[in-house]
Design a protein that fits this description.
- By secondary structure, this protein is an alpha/beta fold.
- It has ten helices and ten strands.
- It has an eight-stranded mixed sheet, with helices on both faces. A two-stranded antiparallel sheet has the order 7-8.
C-alpha cells in the first residue's frame, strides 16, 4: 500500500520522564497498562496539574495519545495514557472489543488510580480525549473531581456505523461463544486518511493494532453522546479540524453541552486524522490547550 508522506511532530523525549504503571478496572475486573509522563527537573514534592489522556477509536497507548501526553508533559503537566480494556497490553477478551460502557469504566478507574499518584494536584485534574474518547468523556462530571475536559475531533456517530447486518453480527458473536473464533472488521479502507495514519510506519502504525470483533457495533448502537452532552456541566474545550469528517457531529455535541464555560476552536484546513500527529496542526492544538487551561487556572 502506497502511503502519503506528511511532516509529523516529534515527541520531546529528552524533556520528559516515563514511568510504566498497571492498575485495575474495578467494574470489569481487568488489569490495565498505562504510562505516566512527567516533565524533567521537577521536585518530588511538587504537585503538578494533571491530564488523563484517552486515545482514538481502537488505538493503543503508543499512538497519538502518547504523542499528546509527551508534548503536554513538556509544557509542565503530569500526563497519563493507558490501553483501554481488550487493547494493547491491557487484559480482556475478545481482543479489540470496543464497548463504550466498558470504556467509561476504564476512564473512571484510570482517574481513581491517577489520584493516588503522589505528584498529582487533585485540584487540577483535566481529561483529554481524541476521537471517540472525546465523546466518552461526556460521562464525567464534577463528582469525578474533573476541573475541565478537552475533546479533539470528538467522534459522535458510533450509533450510525453498521458494517454488517444485525443477523450476521449475532451469528458471529454466537460462533465466538461456542468456538472462540472471532470475526473482525476494520473501518479504514485502502488509501483512506485513516489508513494513511494507522498503516504508515512513519505515523501511527503499531504491531499490536487489531480490528474490532464485529459485534462491537451492537454496543455502539446504544451510545448517544448528544444526550450525555446535555448533562455535561464541567468546563469544556472542543477542538475540531475544519475538514474533519467528524466535524458535523462535533459541532452538534458542542452546541448541546450544558457547560457554561465552553470553547470551540476550529483548526483551519485540518482533517480528522491530521490532528493525530501532523506538526502544522498539532502544534496549534497544544497551544490552544495550554491557553485554555491557563485561563481556567487564573480565573
Amino acid at each position: 500500500m502506497k502511503m502519503i508522506e506528511f511532516e509529523t511532530i516529534s515527541p520531546p523525549v529528552d524533556m520528559v520522564n516515563v514511568t510504566p504503571v498497571v492498575f485495575e478496572n474495578d467494574t470489569a475486573d481487568l488489569m490495565l497498562a498505562g504510562i505516566i509522563f512527567m516533565p524533567k527537573n521537577v521536585s518530588t514534592n511538587d504537585l503538578l496539574p494533571t491530564i488523563l489522556i484517552q486515545g482514538p477509536l481502537g488505538t493503543v497507548k503508543e499512538q497519538a495519545q502518547s504523542l499528546y501526553a509527551q508534548l503536554l508533559a513538556a509544557q509542565g503537566y503530569l500526563t497519563m495514557v493507558y490501553d483501554y480494556s481488550y487493547l494493547g497490553a491491557s487484559q480482556g477478551s475478545p481482543r479489540g472489543l470496543e464497548d463504550p460502557a466498558v470504556r467509561i469504566g476504564d476512564i473512571r478507574s484510570a482517574l481513581k488510580f491517577l489520584k493516588t499518584w503522589p505528584q498529582v494536584d487533585r485540584e487540577r485534574i483535566y481529561t483529554l480525549g481524541l476521537g471517540c474518547s472525546g465523546a466518552y468523556l461526556l460521562d464525567l462530571g464534577t463528582t469525578d473531581q474533573i476541573k475541565a475536559t478537552i475533546a479533539i475531533n470528538p467522534m459522535t456517530m458510533l450509533a450510525r456505523i453498521q458494517c454488517f447486518s444485525e443477523d450476521k453480527v449475532e451469528r458471529a458473536q454466537k460462533l465466538y461463544e461456542k468456538t472462540g473464533r472471532v470475526t473482525r472488521m476494520d473501518l479504514f479502507e485502502k488509501n483512506s486518511a485513516g489508513a494513511n495514519y494507522h498503516f504508515n510506519a512513519r505515523r501511527g502504525a503499531v504491531p499490536n493494532r487489531i480490528g474490532f470483533p464485529v459485534w462491537s457495533q451492537l454496543a455502539w448502537h446504544t451510545f448517544d453522546p448528544n444526550i450525555k452532552a446535555k448533562r455535561a456541566e464541567v468546563p469544556f474545550l472542543v477542538i475540531i479540524g475544519e475538514n474533519a469528517f467528524t466535524r458535523p457531529g462535533a459541532e452538534v455535541m458542542f452546541e448541546n453541552l450544558a457547560s457554561t464555560t465552553k470553547k470551540r476552536i476550529i483548526i483551519s484546513q485540518a482533517g480528522h486524522f491530521d490532528l493525530y500527529d501532523l506538526k502544522a496542526y498539532v502544534s496549534q492544538v497544544i497551544t490552544a490547550i495550554v491557553e485554555f487551561l491557563n485561563t481556567l487556572e487564573n480565573s
